[in-house]
From TrEMBL:
InterPro entries for the chain: Glutathione-S-Trfase_C_sf, Glutathione_S-Trfase, Glutathione_S-Trfase_N, GST_omega, GST_Omega/HSP26, Thioredoxin-like_sf
Protein name, UniProt field: Glutathione S-transferase
Positions of the GST N-terminal domain: 5-100
Pfam families: GST_N_3
UniProt xrefs under CDD domains: GST_C_family, GST_N_family
Organism: Lentinula boryana
PROSITE patterns per record: GST_NTER
Length: 245
């Protein structure tokens, strides 16, 4: 697969939303900084030109597409600027319809989008609340969210359909599961000390989560995940980010 127009992805290693798009691009077979430019944005010290020229919301991910071929730090006014991770997932899928990121079957397309919606409404708020020390029932919200996602998954393999194709549903959730693993198994969070490791042990041993564990093993074995996720970097960043009172 090849791009017909220049593409620059503005991203940040620490950001799960940006990681969504990196995964999708990797699944198309495109190589970072060969077929497209991957431009790392320091979220604590963003370039002055980023907000006015790339994304008025000043967030990652964002894509510059088309126009003359220029470097990421010299964006052209002739290129189209796009933002928001779920929008960009579908944009990448539309650029490469044969990638199967977005199923051709309308029913499976709807299931992929419903899976993402369930993740956003059932799992993500509970995960953020637990890590931020705002959960009123410990890790139960995380456990419940994962069980609800399991109910929507294919019997084996990946999330949607027959479990053989990596879709936008997988790209949308995988970055957050990856960061959950780093956080919980290292006990990074403002919950009571030891609760993260305890929650991770439950996810690794309790039969309630057998389907999720198989899913997670399948995803982590994919080349797209291996080339876009830097666990050592995240561990170092999280070790200084999450502190307890």
């Amino acid at each position: 697969m090849a791009l017909l127009e220049p593409l620059v992805l503005y991203t940040a290693k620490i950001c799960p939303f940006a990681h969504r798009v990196e995964l999708a691009l990797a699944e198309t077979g495109l190589k970072s900084n060969k077929d497209f430019e991957r431009y790392e944005i320091d979220l604590k010290n963003k370039p002055d030109w980023y907000q006015p020229k790339i994304n008025p919301a000043s967030k990652v991910p964002a894509i510059s597409y088309g126009g003359p071929k220029v470097t990421g730090d010299q964006p052209s006014s002739e290129s189209t600027k796009l933002a928001e991770s779920l929008v960009l997932l579908e944009f990448v899928a539309d650029l490469f319809p044969n990638s199967r990121l977005l199923p051709k079957d309308p029913v499976l397309r709807a299931k992929a989008r419903f899976f993402i919606d369930a993740f956003a409404n059932k799992f993500a708020p509970a995960s953020f609340a637990f890590q931020g020390g705002k959960s009123t029932n410990g890790a139960e919200g995380i456990f419940s969210g994962i069980e609800q996602l399991q109910d929507l998954m294919a019997p084996e393999g990946l999330a949607i359909g027959d479990g053989k194709d990596f879709t936008i549903a997988d790209a949308a959730v995988v970055p957050f599961f990856a960061r959950m693993e780093v956080s919980l198994k290292n006990d990074f969070g403002v919950y009571p000390e030891g609760e993260g490791k305890k929650a991770w042990e439950t996810l690794q041993t309790n039969g309630r989560f057998a389907r999720w564990r198989k899913y997670w093993e399948t995803v982590k074995a994919r080349e797209s995940f291996k080339t876009t996720f830097d666990e050592d970097y995240l561990t170092k960043q999280y070790s200084t980010r999450w502190t307890r009172a």
